[in-house]
Hints:
elongated, disordered N terminus, 44% helix, Rossmann fold, five-stranded parallel β-sheet, alpha/beta, Helicase, Ruva Protein, domain 3, 225 residues
Amino acid sequence: MNPRQLAFDLGVSENFSRAGFFPSTTNAAAMAALMQAAPWPQGRMLLVGPEGAGKSHLAHIWADENGAALLPAARLQSLNPTTLPARLVVDDADLVAGIPAAEETLFHLLNHQLASGGQLLLTARHAPRDWDLGLPDLLSRLQSIAVARIAPPDDALLSAVLVKLFADRQIAVPPNLIAYLAARMERSVAAARHLVAALDARALALGRPVTRALAAELLDSAGRG
């Protein structure tokens, strides 16, 4: 029996290495901006892209290769910015919006980083003007940061992401499934994550392998819903 047919979830192990990153025309410019040999302007970079587009993956690569710490933005409000490492990634930085303590900490972190000569990488889904910040001085600081952008995925990247997501869940799928899904799903990496998770859950519940037939049933039921 295929172990994925047992009625429990084996979990997901995400690969954030450079080898697990799929370069494409949609992320090549962002990767080049992050990995450039020249210093970033003021030692800062803002990486912007849609949910699930690979921002965190690129941030992990940069952090691993540059000895930087990686911090979820949700933790900012409880930290003293002057005690943070000189090289730092703040992931999902736009989530500080509407949380006064977090906005204040990010503002002071930007000031401290500039004074100390460190490097700071921020990731976000949108440009700072769309974060709905309550602290005008923070918005002013953020709008001066150099921006690297990841575009929505093209066909090649979406197919590669589907293959990776199935591999992360230790699921072997027939070759024709990837092209079938890529042609019919919403055009985003976030949608790919949700679709693979839904297929995995349905296969586990029914005790069946993940096949094109199972995918067709899932997509058909979603369309009727």
